[in-house]
Design brief:
Elements: H1 2-21, E1 23-26, E2 32-39, E3 44-50, E4 57-58, E5 66-67, E6 69-75, E7 83-89, E8 96-102, E9 114-120, E10 127-134
Antiparallel strand pairs: 1-2, 2-3, 3-8, 4-5, 6-7, 6-9, 9-10
């Protein structure tokens, strides 16, 4: 009986532990720049970003323009019109940024499957998804 309880506990807890660790945030070249922990059913997003150049940033992570702002979004790869703004992202002098949001609602029915950090030019005419995390 104890063995079955232990196995059941591991089966139930393992996915929660994996979700708490987060998914990697990748640049267009595939380099890892931190993690994003997202719980769509609770509407919570936590991001720990590393290696993101401080603003203003000339050609950040493959962009062909100078970035003046970074913005984080939850998006749907199936429907580009579905996106939820998470936060403005401002890296410190060590190129580290943290962002979190609590929407206090269930976002799981919107088809959101990616977290992106987008760099914008000064006039917002140029933009590039500099970091992307694919949710599981």
């Amino acid at each position: 009986m104890v063995v079955w309880k232990t196995i059941a506990a591991l089966v139930l807890v393992a996915p929660l532990m994996a979700q708490a660790a987060g998914v990697p945030l990748l640049d267009p070249a595939g380099g890892s720049h931190g993690t994003a922990a997202v719980t769509l059913s609770k509407g919570s997003v936590r991001m720990k970003i590393t290696g993101l150049p401080q603003l203003p940033a000339a050609n950040p992570l493959g962009a062909t323009f100078t970035a003046y702002v970074y913005k984080a979004y939850l998006t749907s790869s199936a429907d580009p019109a579905v996106e939820v703004f998470v936060a403005d992202v401002y890296p410190n002098g060590k190129s580290i940024a943290k962002a979190k949001a609590a929407f206090k609602g269930d976002l799981s029915l919107l088809g959101l499957d990616r977290v992106v950090v987008t760099a914008y030019s000064k006039d917002a005419r140029d933009s590039l998804d500099v970091l992307t995390a694919t949710l599981q």
